[in-house]
Specification:
mainly beta, disordered N terminus, about 130 residues, about 10% helix, globular, 3 helices, about 35% strand
Length: about 130
């Protein structure tokens, strides 16, 4: 495989804005366990101005997980509760402030920094694999 000698991106005059991360092998992508999770509850931790605390159901196989997401400025807890979204469930646990996150919620972020969650329709069961 021959790779380009310079990173993929857009030339913005004197400023160069990189828009794509380095290429990875398919085997690296296969390591990710992406699942549909239903957000049972969502709250604002008293200790964080950025995070939301999610209680997410991934069905019997994976159970429930506590996931912290840095989306407090973009979404209200009541907008997320009851929704099904896409999550990475096999990340190592990570301390975030006073809590520990057991996964990551996927969010699409546009060039204007607008964010959109990757909603999943209600007919897809919690715990379903995303491929």
């Amino acid at each position: 495989m021959i790779l380009p000698k310079r990173p993929v991106g857009v030339n913005l005059g004197m400023n160069y804005k990189k828009i794509m991360k380095p290429l990875i092998e398919f085997a690296d992508f296969e390591k990710l366990d992406l699942r549909v999770g239903k957000i049972l509850s969502c709250s604002i931790p008293s200790w964080s101005p950025k995070l939301l605390e999610l209680d997410v159901d991934f069905a019997a196989e994976l159970g429930r997980k506590k996931i912290f997401a840095g989306v407090q400025k973009r979404f209200k807890p009541e907008e997320l509760a009851g929704k099904s979204c896409t999550f990475v469930v096999n990340l190592a646990e990570r301390k975030m402030g006073e809590g520990v996150s057991q996964g990551m919620m996927l969010v699409a972020v546009g060039p204007d920094d607008a964010a959109s969650l990757l909603w999943v329709s209600d007919n897809v069961a919690p715990g379903s694999a995303v491929r």
